[in-house]
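Researcher: I'd like a structural prediction for the single chain below. Treat it as a standalone chain; there are no partners to consider.
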Amino acid sequence: MRFPDDFPPAERLPLTERRHGHEIADPYRWLEDPVDPRTQDWLAAQDRLWRDSAKSMPWRERFLARLTELRDTGLVTPPVWRGVRRFHLRQSPSQEHPVLCCDDRVVLDPMELDPSGLTTLDDWQPDLEGRRLAYQISRSGDEKACLYVRDLATGEVVDGPIGGCRYSAVAWLPGGESFYYVRFQQGVFLHTIGSADADVPVFTRGAISYGVQISPDGRWLTISAGTGSGNSLWLADLAGEDPAPRPVQESPNARTAGAVACDGRLYLLTDRDAPRRRLCVADPASPAVWRELIPEDEEAVLGAFTLLDGDRLLVSRTRHAIGEIGVHDARTGERLGTVPLPGNGSIASLTSRPGGGPEAWFAYTDAVTPAEIWRYDARTDTTTRWSSPPGQVGLPEVRSHHIEYVSADGTPVRMVVVARPSQGGPRPTILSGYGGFGIPLMPGYAADSLAWVEAGGVLAIANLRGGGEEGEAWHRDGMLERKQNVFDDFVAAAEKLIADGWTTPGQLGIWGESNGGLLVGAALTQRPGLFAAVVCSAGLLDMVRYHLSGLGPSWTGEYGDPDDPEHLGWLLDYSPYHHVREGTDYPATLFTVAAADTRVDPMHARKMCAALQWASGGGRPVLLRYEPDVGHGARAVSRSVGLAADVLAFLAAQLGCSDPA
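Model: Treating it as a single chain, here is the predicted structure.
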């Protein structure tokens, strides 16, 4: 490993701004500009430093080989039915990207579009009859998708590209000649296949997020317009005399998803007056008049639902990060039973036929089970495995431990610890978390986790406030002025691991991505002596200027607006870049970034890396791993494996893993 004297030089400017009464230093502002020759020279020097350092990591080749094996499970997703046709994604162990299948025929393969592997399939939606396919692709990880339409009988592209469709929802009208779609942060538009006329704006409310969904019969269109704290919901009767959208909910402080099902009722999944969510119904003719069907569960978060024949309603829930599916009477809401599951893991992608039917499909995974697809039959009340991943790998024996601990303010928090059995004594440990945007961290198969545990390490996942593991109240208790709760929960998790003998400060590393990168950045600046190593991937780190690049402007509802005097105070209290102090013995740190990241600007990592290299007083490495041609989201399998191997090798070197030989 290199030492601080070997760090590439970075000019430290005497730049200070006074904003809302705060003196804010920003000595590495120049690193925000990726095309500045100084930035490019600095990046090249950082890349040489990283490559030289990586050569001395003894675990690197071992992790690369084992991760390649553990990732060879492949992938299958639950079926999506349109007419009599069945669509799903499938990825064999040899494929870099999943391919889209109609029945068992491949209809779209990203590698055929671009053999370099840099093009990804971001989203797809067949028409109601299953004859045409709308799909979105982006290149080099920029997530700036273009939308195309393909005829599934001939394979011919019959329309597109339509730009500005970043992960756009698509709602096809019957017949497959037109559809509604979302332009990113612009609104909902109506597009007609092959038309030379401009697309018709249907619903616009400014730079917010939108969603669209259409009923199985093509009559009812639901439109969602959301902000960081909630959404409005609208319903349009496309067969009525007045097809203009009518309000279902207009609330900035509640999230509601709505859809008209095959029984003709409007179903509303909402956290309004129910932080763990409840399910309501309404007559589409009077969409603002709701009736509660399934009340909030005090201990479980309602996740998704689907309607089956015989007035059976399946409802998935997450109970302290463990998935379950309940069977309910669709008319009364009464709970009739529980869908048998293969274990205590995660449930995802609950699907059924749009017109009803006795069957439903869902994905199941846990720490040692790659995602499998299971089929539930309401006629027999049985669950059977519908599809297994196409690849088979040898898996280590591991055990999951569910631990509850107390945060700084007395709040109980849960954590899952995964380790090999019968290995007592402190061990090298990775602690990870997220704690933002109401997103839960659920148990699931992950090659990097298993490779680490197999090598003798411990993996801990903390279900922090700010996430969605315990509902919307849990989320709100870790956002805006309460963001420090997230960091306190994380630090308390580290202290619990040490107190219970799982690890020591010298063997404890932390790893976070995106919002989780902000998490580990705050942890390393607030409690540097608690950790030996940090991996910060695509992290938000300059919270004074985060809203000026990437998707930052859309996140002010989660973090606060730096242009607001009160909010700026909250952000400065924890902004990692602004809390780097010269001479501090910081943990060994690795930043991983991608040049094409359009969500989190790589400038965060560049500035934070320069600041830590300047400040570090303990002689530990501070490194930057930089990829020029990928982004924040999906990437080829080989690129994902390479990144994970490098991260694990860095942590193994810093946390004292024994020689892999």
